Amino acid sequence: MTQTAIIVGAGLGGLAAARALETAGWHVRVLEAALEVRAMGAGISITSNGLEALDELGVGDAVRERAVKARPEGVFTDQGTRLQQGFAHESSAVHAIHRGTLLEILRGDREVETGMRVVGAADASSGRPSVTIEHGAADPDSRDARSERQARADRSLGIKVGRRLQRALEPGDEPIDRRAERRATKQQVRSAAEGRFETLEADLIIGADGIDSAVRKALWPKAATDYSGATCWYGVLQAESDSPAGARQYLGRGAEFGMVPIDGGRVYWWGMAHARMGGHAPDELEAARERFDAWAPEVRDHIAATPQASITRRDLHWLATPLKTFHRPGVVLLGDAAHAMLPTLGQGGNLTFEDAATLGILLADHPLEQALRAYDSERIRRTDRFKQLSHRLAHTTTETRSPVLVAARNGVYNLMPAMLAEIAGDWMLHWRSPRAKR
Ligand SMILES: Cc1cc2nc3c(=O)[nH]c(=O)nc-3n(C[C@H](O)[C@H](O)[C@H](O)COP(=O)(O)OP(=O)(O)OC[C@H]3O[C@@H](n4cnc5c(N)ncnc54)[C@H](O)[C@@H]3O)c2cc1C
């Protein structure tokens, strides 16, 4: 009999997992909280390990065709002085692509059930694995409208209430647990009674719902995210006359800037800077312009030429608690839900593709629980290594603020030959399929 999976989240991880499981012969439902499948307005760099996983998922060639193959052009100071040569080795080239294009490729013509916000999950220890949906709940991406901190607090309250109500209610029942009823707001209890909460079951639940994962919060309640100390602006614009042909990185005091060409003759840039959490400006383009005002002319030009509508700001958080396992009976996490890391190494998405490809292969070849145990062995150590390294790297960029430390850091970059950096990167940039290890 065909096995069934519910995938929570239609981001890069959820759509990659849908491909992987369908290839393994599973029947899949993809639930997405937002009202449409959409990407944050930014690019993403895919390294060779991510591309190997995308090949396994059957979309590597489509990505190669649409993306721009960009060689790292080197590391520069904030004034544009070269600190490190670009990399020459073929494997260090990245495929840079707009996230919207990538989501489109991964999704294909797959049906995604939108407006389906998951607020709770249960594993197979007391019945079939399930998720609880809150129909008509606010889109979690509406964080632009409120401060991120408030959105986080609301979401975690919603999840707690959802869990309490799930415990208190059988589908269709009136609330019977008076204490749960008292703690929930009147509106939430009324909504539950009106059938706004629904429970869906499957053989496997996949939490691909990002850093604030509701699946993780329900079943790994102690795992906590942490603020990195840095915020990030990013934007997309049509290429300028001084746009680079490859990927460039600039390092300054407490800040880092990068840019890379992407599909459609566009350039994607990001600027990370030390900042207090939750800070927002009425005009984020102006705020980015001010923060990078004294930087190299090409940095300033690119920010200035960015259309107002295509700039986004996001505080950078990471999953500070290492998870000892990525699975519970009949439930598994992948992508940022499992190992959200800082973007300093540009690997969160690449590792997400590796997760999905690995899970698909293991589910095709083994019974469910055995496959989930093998998934832990394949994924935990590797992803944790990246997570820790990304965090340490942030100390040399956004957390390095004193001029003396900045000079010392720049000196180290200057002395480190590009070849060494490439060799150090070799373990990172290769995904080994579980099949290849047999
Ligand atoms: C500034 C920045 C730059 C980056 N650059 C790179 C890079 O160059 N290369 C790279 O490899 N990685 C990069 N990353 C990391 C990468 O973006 C993430 O690792 C990747 O997007 C994770 O994918 P995901 O599907 O796990 O999570 P997400 O992309 O967050 O997707 C989660 C999905 O789940 C949905 N969802 C959330 N909650 C619920 C719910 N309760 N119910 C139902 N649906 C829900 C969301 O709406 C969303 O669609 C970068 C990250 C940042 C912040």
From TrEMBL:
Pfam families: FAD_binding_3 (PF01494). Residues 122-192 are annotated as: Disordered. InterPro entries: FAD-bd, FAD-dep_Monooxygenase_BioMet, FAD/NAD-bd_sf. Residues 136-157, 175-184 have a biased composition (Basic and acidic residues). Keywords: Monooxygenase, Oxidoreductase. It comes from Agrococcus pavilionensis RW1. Residues 5-118, 184-385 form the FAD-binding domain. This is FAD-binding domain-containing protein. GO terms for molecular function: FAD binding; monooxygenase activity.
